[in-house]
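Translate structure to sequence.
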């Protein structure tokens, strides 16, 4: 063989070897990416849900004065403009949830259900403890004549209202001490309704005049009307507030006490004994309640008296949301709701599917149906709305990571 041929073959061998060496980083990157995707699923569960902890809408510290900007009110959705997508808090961190059905793009996974994964949303049946449906009750309570107002609040001003015809409701007025507490009650109900939840009593806004409140004040009330009146925040003589269905016969099952927590904890953990018998409905409601509380950043659930069951003792009534939807959410309070959310590893399939279907446009449409929104009040301001959507994305990421490890049937264990 001539020297030229030998030299050509050697050069070719060197070029092939060089191409192989250059291909190593690419091949290594692909392998590393595959390993990283598997590790993310495991670490998200084992380390207590990185996505939850990194949720921008929940853990965001108050902005410095130089960065402060007023939040514009929530307005009804514009059908001609698509809703803005949920943006992960940290773009460098994988934040899109593990799909619950056929894989889709990250944008679809964050903003809604994959095609074919969910049926079209249907009208909710309403609160399980109310005959006739929520809409019928709200229509009646909106025009009913109040006969008596009994102050019952301890930490905030609340009246039990007795109407002619036998209707009863709690009335949380707009006050100087809690100017948005009544709006939070209505917003929480509207979000629960959009999620198809039947555990949250209906809440609707309405006005009473100061003259009505004072003229029908319970005769047995021994307090000072002047102090009540000074706390009321009205528009002229009209006082806005939230009317919430009065649930009769609430029972304390001590689920918010150490003994009750110890009893319920295994129901919601993957390594715990599943609930049996009547415990199944309680477990499902507790799981949904804690997911809902994380969504709403409700820091007041476990302060005492806010985890009650209905008269049968088989269902949990999810109520009292005046202190929810804090924005910005201080770190200590975020850790409180985050800790509860981390304890849930079994969820209601219906709740998760409806959560995946929830989007900004749907929330705006739900809020617009309340009389307060029609009167110009924003049930949620833009910062609160963004917080809900951010926590929704983080909660779905948590559920997706659990499914990746334990399987869908084990995680979506309740109907």
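Result:
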């Amino acid at each position: 063989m001539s020297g030229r041929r030998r030299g050509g073959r050697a050069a070719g061998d060197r070029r092939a070897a060089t191409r192989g060496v250059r291909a190593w980083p690419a091949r290594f990157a692909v392998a590393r990416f595959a390993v990283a995707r598997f590790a993310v699923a495991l670490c998200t569960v084992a380390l207590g849900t990185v996505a939850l902890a990194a949720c921008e809408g929940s853990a965001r510290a108050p902005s410095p004065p130089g960065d402060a900007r007023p939040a514009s009110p929530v307005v009804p959705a514009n059908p001609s403009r698509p809703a803005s997508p949920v943006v992960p808090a940290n773009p460098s961190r994988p934040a899109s949830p593990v799909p619950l059905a056929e894989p889709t793009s990250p944008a679809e996974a964050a903003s809604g259900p994959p095609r074919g994964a969910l049926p079209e949303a249907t009208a909710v049946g309403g609160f399980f403890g109310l005959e006739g449906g929520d809409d019928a009750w709200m229509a009646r309570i909106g025009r009913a004549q109040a006969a008596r107002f009994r102050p019952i609040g301890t930490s905030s001003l609340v009246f039990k209202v007795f109407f002619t015809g036998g209707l009863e409701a709690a009335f949380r007025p707009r006050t100087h001490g809690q100017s948005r507490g009544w709006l939070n009650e209505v917003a929480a109900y509207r979000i629960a309704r959009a999620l198809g939840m039947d555990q949250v009593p209906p809440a609707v806004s309405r006005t009473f005049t100061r003259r009505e409140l004072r003229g029908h004040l319970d005769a047995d009330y021994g307090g000072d009307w002047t102090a009540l009146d000074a706390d009321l925040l009205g528009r002229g003589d009209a006082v806005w507030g939230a009317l919430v269905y009065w649930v009769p016969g609430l029972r304390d099952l001590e689920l918010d006490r150490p003994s009750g927590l110890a009893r319920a904890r295994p129901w919601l953990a993957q390594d715990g004994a599943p609930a049996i018998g009547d415990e199944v409905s309680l477990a499902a409601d507790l799981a949904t309640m804690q997911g809902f509380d994380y969504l709403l950043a409700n820091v007041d659930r476990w302060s005492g008296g806010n985890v009650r069951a209905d008269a049968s003792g088989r269902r949990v009534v999810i109520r009292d949301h005046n202190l929810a939807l804090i924005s910005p959410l201080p770190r200590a309070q975020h850790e409180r709701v985050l800790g509860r959310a981390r304890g849930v590893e079994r969820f209601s399939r219906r709740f998760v599917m409806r959560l995946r279907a929830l989007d900004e446009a749907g929330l705006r449409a739900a809020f617009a149906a309340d009389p307060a929104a029609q009167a110009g009040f924003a049930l949620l301001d833009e910062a609160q709305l963004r917080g809900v959507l951010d926590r929704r994305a983080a909660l779905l990421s948590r559920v997706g990571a659990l499914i990746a490890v334990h399987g869908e049937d084990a995680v979506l264990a309740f109907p």
